[in-house]
Amino acid sequence: MVGDVPVNFEMITAAAHRLKEHARRTPLLSSPFLDRIAGRRVFVKAECLQHTGSFKFRGAWSAITALPDTARGVIAFSSGNHAQGVAYAASLKGLPAVIIMPRDAPAIKIANTRALGAEVVLYDRVLEDRDALGAALARERGLELIQPFDHPQVIAGQGSVGLEIAEQARAEGIKDAQVLVCCGGGGLTSGIALALEQTAPQMQVRTVEPEGFDDVAQSLATGQVVENPTRSGLCDAIVTPRPGALTWPVMQRLCGQGLVVSDTEALRAMALAYDRLKLVLEPGGAVALAAAVFRRDEIEGDAVIVTASGGNVDRPVFMDALAEEAADAKR
Amino acid sequence: MVGDVPVNFEMITAAAHRLKEHARRTPLLSSPFLDRIAGRRVFVKAECLQHTGSFKFRGAWSAITALPDTARGVIAFSSGNHAQGVAYAASLKGLPAVIIMPRDAPAIKIANTRALGAEVVLYDRVLEDRDALGAALARERGLELIQPFDHPQVIAGQGSVGLEIAEQARAEGIKDAQVLVCCGGGGLTSGIALALEQTAPQMQVRTVEPEGFDDVAQSLATGQVVENPTRSGLCDAIVTPRPGALTWPVMQRLCGQGLVVSDTEALRAMALAYDRLKLVLEPGGAVALAAAVFRRDEIEGDAVIVTASGGNVDRPVFMDALAEEAADAKR
């Protein structure tokens, strides 16, 4: 930590070093069909191919490998991608992981998290206080809490995506591009922004959120933190009430105007990724591609880079996406 | 050409050199869930992420870049992955491409091939002689025919997949493994087998075909070329009547016993690739993964490598696959 900056570039390169040989270096994909629809070259950073199906493994591994040797295990609150990332990273590291989930979480998510080696502790959303339960468990068992985004080493780990984007863009001959990032609490966004600030300062990060959950876009527009009402949505992976305490100052300093897409546009982007990239994306992992395709007038430059941040989507939702009309059918 | 060997290792390394910077080096993916179901480590070479959604781009680019400078264009007979591979490779190389397709080919395949820059010539399966039509066009316009598998430079190009498998397996610490290859005419299989013979001789290639189209498995078992009745099937990309004239001697010399899976098993493997790898596979591109999962007793070793050779699948077929019960649901 340098002064009041809780995450810096050196922490990102150190996290990337710890991730080497453990995280996948995901490919940067493209398709002439996407270029035509978007009106510029489109490059897709396929983090859905990361271990456990989302970028979250990076932050989890980064945080777990930065723990002191005295750590006896980790604990996290999540029923989604963060849970799977923490569970798998801890099991690879040989550390116990406790994941706290609401009792009404989908059975498949509970089963997957257990299968990745974690102990799942269920709580009742109405009758129990999640934070108190977690704090008691952490104290009893000496577990370290891994926050999903407001954790310096988690942000540093997600920043490794930015280092790879800079290198892969250079290899593709991309000099200048906006980088669209699927944005929930801002861990991935702020990590990538800090990495690109040093390695590709001509690139600008733009956040992409679903309609109704555009707390970051509104915060960026007004210059102060704006909250969404807390509720669930199709893009469940990135439905968060407000930008994080650590991530917001970074986003405010480094990001351009926030982009917003509809749920239907996210579904249509999923269908495009299916048709043109052979990738499975979840709705929250498809919003950046949706913005590249459906908000082309709000983007600048000859090329755009989008993060495809995750692919953990229930089959019925994916089938809904495939039932959408092909986005290029009318061209 | 050395003696009567129409493809050799040097041609494969030369093709790989021409492909560098043009083809994607596709990732070798894995999932602890697949390992558990298969009873050994499973590594998936994701050629569905190749340009145009299948490995066919490699052979097409290899063949087109080996043409004499006097070539005025190329011609191919295909309504599938080979058509798209040839069309895109020719357009990148700035050469005209004519693709001959039956008039009743799916509209989306015709549209995709045209969108990739090729001229599509349609013929009537009943009234017209495809080969005569192609020969006349080739003569008139000075076009070179690119066969889908019985072409030395096409086989050499597909062999680049084998070079990458050898390198990526080494990086993963895999010393010994059977390599399961989705097999139609045998271009990919024989290319990979020739590449591995030199770079990873401890690895053995096994062909995988759909039930009812197991001409290669039967030919390998009997030692002489066996034919299937010509008809269509779910695994359309690899439904061929007999092994190729150039590919058969290579397969006979280098491949182990052929594996055969059912259409339902191919669909269930597609669902597994969706759940666990976030990849879109077509039925013919999923048979090798199906064999790893559903024929575990017919495979040897602690690790198995499977090719996921393509992902061009119509949405209704993919939705059928997602409607299959999860292969690990009973575990």
From TrEMBL, chains A, B:
Keywords: Lyase, Pyridoxal phosphate. Residues 21-307 form the Tryptophan synthase beta chain-like PALP domain. InterPro entries: Ser/Thr_Dehydratase (IPR050147), Ser/Thr_deHydtase_PyrdxlP-BS (IPR000634), TrpB-like_PALP (IPR001926), TrpB-like_PALP_sf (IPR036052). One of its GO terms (biological process) is L-threonine catabolic process. GO terms for molecular function: L-serine ammonia-lyase activity; pyridoxal phosphate binding; threonine deaminase activity. SUPFAM superfamilies: Tryptophan synthase beta subunit-like PLP-dependent enzymes. The keyword Glycoprotein does not apply. Its cofactor is pyridoxal 5'-phosphate. CDD domains: Thr-dehyd. PROSITE patterns: DEHYDRATASE_SER_THR. Belongs to the serine/threonine dehydratase family. This is Threonine/serine dehydratase. It comes from Roseinatronobacter bogoriensis subsp. barguzinensis.
